[in-house]
Design brief:
CATH class of the largest domain: Alpha Beta
Structural class: alpha/beta
Strand order of the largest sheet: 8-9-7-10-11-12
CATH architecture of the largest domain: 3-Layer(aba) Sandwich
Number of helices: 16
Shape: globular
Number of domains: 3
CATH superfamily of the largest domain: Mur-like, catalytic domain
Length: 460
């Protein structure tokens, strides 16, 4: 993590007002949350829904060594070194950008509508077989998470893997210019963010901002199955020296699967250009293979030996709420895929779940897919049309939009086997009564629906 004297922090943030007696004091790390602040850190109060300046005394109690203070706020704290700045958010980005420039680290940036986090996890695991790697923890992929990830880098880190998310135009541009990726990955362009951006074309342009911070000789790795993305990349990179590598299901890509087989909790595959290696992933679903191929392309770029790549994928530690399998106290199996949902990811999950065998009854629990714009009802109805009464026993939905899924599915399912709910409590009660030993319950929905709350509500 960043370890600097306060007079250097003042320079890096373009701050002022630090007393000379504090110039040589040192900070270890940066925090914007007084509750999780590590002793010795620089506290940076950010103005969001709540104003972080109000929590300065908590930060001091928890061991903050110094703080930034936005100049338009009165009553700066006493008893702690203070650096004044025009805007604490801008100062956080300035500090992260300057620290990144001081490091010799090489960076990988990963974005996309779906699959960012699993691709990040597999990429980090593959690179860690050969290099000292740090990566975005959890979902630290926004305009707060990326600078904090950069500031948490150790000075001897060789490669940083940065997940980059966005909600509108210009955000990934900012993150890319902070991280300065040598390699950038676009996993998939889906329908998420249609509400903010209005069209898939606009989403593609927003994701392609990941190239804006790249060096001239950078490498862009994209899903080559998407012709719209392919056309946009050609236009974006016209007259540039950025190299493009493609992955996907089709044989015209540089990386594509030769064989895929599914286990109950894993996926096995072989691929071009390395058909002799049999890979295993700790998640079950054909759609995960594309994410793994993107990670393999990054590993090849950095020269990870081929013999290490199988272990790198097989032993990867994956982020939570993605096809997590657990047993309930009532004898049924949970499959928790509730980290997020979009039409693309739900369709892929349905393909997996409807092919799943070996269970007495299969209960599908779907929450609303959010941020889909004017076509949100249409997208939900499309999911209902894909449901097969011979492959799923019960369909239970939560939320106003997912009720559209239930309405369409009820046309082909037996009476009482499709149910729509407005409240989690009612849904949890019915899962408890319907699911028993030998059954499986699959849950998925957008992050805002917090579908994982059902598991403790049902009772494990």
């Amino acid at each position: 993590m960043i370890h600097r004297k306060l007079n250097e922090i003042e320079r890096m943030t373009q701050g002022w007002g630090l007393l000379e007696e504090h110039w040589d004091l040192e900070i270890y790390g940066v925090s914007i949350d007084s509750r999780t602040l590590r002793p010795g850190s620089l506290f940076t109060p950010i103005i969001r829904e709540k104003d972080g300046h109000h929590y300065i005394h908590n930060a001091i109690v928890n061991g903050a060594a110094a703080c930034l203070w936005q100049n338009d706020h009165g009553n700066p704290p006493v008893g702690i070194p203070v650096i004044y700045v025009e805007n604490t958010f801008d100062a956080l980005h300035r500090l992260a950008g300057e620290y990144r420039r001081q490091l010799k680290v090489r960076t990988v940036g990963i974005t996309g509508s779906n699959g960012k986090t699993t691709t990040k996890d597999w990429t980090s695991s593959l690179l860690a077989t050969t290099y000292k790697v740090q990566y975005s923890e959890g979902n630290m992929n926004n305009h707060f998470g990326v600078p904090l990830t950069l500031l948490d880098l150790k000075e001897d880190t060789e490669i940083a893997v940065l997940e980059m998310g966005m909600s509108g135009l210009g955000e990934i541009d900012q993150l890319s210019r902070l991280g300065r990726p040598e390699v950038a990955v676009i996993t998939l362009i889906g329908e998420s963010h249609l509400a903010e951006l209005g069209s898939r074309e606009a989403i593609i342009q927003a994701k392609l901002e990941i190239c804006n911070g790249m060096e001239a000789a950078g490498t862009l790795i994209i899903n080559g199955d998407d012709p719209m993305l392919e056309d946009a990349v050609k236009h974006k990179l016209l007259n540039q020296t950025i190299r493009t590598i493609r992955f996907g299901t089709a044989a015209q890509n540089d990386y594509y699967p030769l064989s895929v087989s599914l286990g109950s909790q894993e996926t096995h595959f072989t691929c071009h250009p390395r058909p002799e290696i049999h890979y295993s992933l700790g998640l079950s679903g054909k759609h995960y293979v594309s994410n793994a191929l993107a990670a393999l392309a990054v590993a090849d770029y950095f020269g990870v030996p081929a013999e290490k790549t199988e272990k790198g994928l097989r032993e990867a530690i994956l982020s939570g709420m993605r096809m997590e399998v657990s047993s309930s106290g009532s004898g049924f199996t949970w499959i928790n895929d509730s980290f997020n949902a979009s039409p693309t990811s739900v369709k892929a999950a349905l393909a997996f779940f409807q092919e799943l065998e070996g269970y007495r009854n299969k209960l599908l629990v779907l929450g609303d897919m959010l941020n889909l714009g004017d076509k949100e009802i249409e997208y939900h109805r499309q999911i209902g049309e894909l449901l097969n009464a011979e492959a799923v026993d019960y369909v239970l939905t939560l939320g106003r939009l997912s009720a559209e899924i239930a309405q369409v599915a009820s046309r082909t399912f037996p009476l009482g086997h499709v149910r729509a709910y407005e409240h989690k409590e009612e849904l949890a009660k019915d899962i408890r009564s319907l699911a028993g030993p030998g059954d499986v319950v699959f849950i998925k929905g957008s992050r805002g629906m917090m579908m994982e709350q059902l598991i403790p509500m049902v009772g494990g």
